[in-house]
Task: inverse folding
């Protein structure tokens, strides 16, 4: 049984992305979100792609500073790796994707809210996009789906959380419904649709990102 994209969009009409406020300028100027590995390569720090980040990283890309989040919750003792996988390989796999939390007009699912609370003291920027808009804008890039918060594995009843090639699956391979999806990810980059919105809080107010123009969050 595959995941029906239309039904998914009806149940989860919005996708949410959290980023450092200082990253907004570059995202708005480019009109897209790039994966961490692409940013590391452009900053000539490609070796960072396989290194778990205990702290956030500040790198220089095109003469501007980009903040890349830490990966503290990515704890290998809680992971059951697929054959041939280890932590460096999985870190690279994570870094090759752009991540969104699915949700509705009132906010993301619980995992997304927990993620926001973890970084709320930093006053991050929140972006939301309509599912139908991001699909239309990225027709050559297929979304992938995960049952887990892939960067925060947990032991459940003494059982480790699986990670590897099957962590992110396309709609044909994902055996479940919209309620089984914890993350929606895109490989490499996501072009933002013109109706992308930004806010300082999931409770709003939400404003149009106005790609290509100057905007200051308050």
Result:
């Amino acid at each position: 049984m595959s995941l029906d994209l239309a039904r998914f969009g009806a149940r989860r009409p919005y996708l949410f992305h959290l980023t450092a406020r200082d990253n907004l300028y570059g995202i708005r100027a480019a009109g897209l979100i790039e994966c961490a590995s692409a940013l590391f390569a452009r900053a000539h720090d490609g070796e960072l792609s396989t290194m778990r980040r205990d702290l956030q990283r500040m790198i220089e890309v095109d003469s501007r500073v980009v903040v890349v989040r830490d990966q503290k919750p990515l704890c290998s003792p809680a992971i059951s790796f697929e054959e041939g996988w280890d932590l460096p390989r999985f870190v690279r796999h994570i870094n090759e994707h752009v991540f969104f939390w699915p949700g509705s007009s009132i906010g993301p699912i619980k995992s997304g809210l927990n993620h926001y609370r973890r970084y709320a003291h930093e006053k991050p920027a929140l972006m939301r996009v309509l599912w139908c808009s991001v699909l239309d804008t990225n027709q050559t890039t297929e979304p992938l789906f995960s049952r887990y918060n892939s960067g925060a594995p947990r032991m459940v009843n003494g059982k480790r959380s699986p990670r590897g090639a099957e962590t992110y699956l396309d709609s044909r391979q994902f055996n479940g419904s919209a309620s089984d999806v914890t993350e929606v990810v895109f490989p490499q980059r996501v072009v933002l649709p013109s109706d992308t919105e930004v806010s300082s809080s999931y409770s709003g107010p939400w404003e149009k990102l106005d790609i290509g123009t100057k905007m200051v969050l308050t």
Remarks:
- The mean pLDDT is 94.
- Residues 5-197 form one domain.
- The longest strand covers residues 97-104.
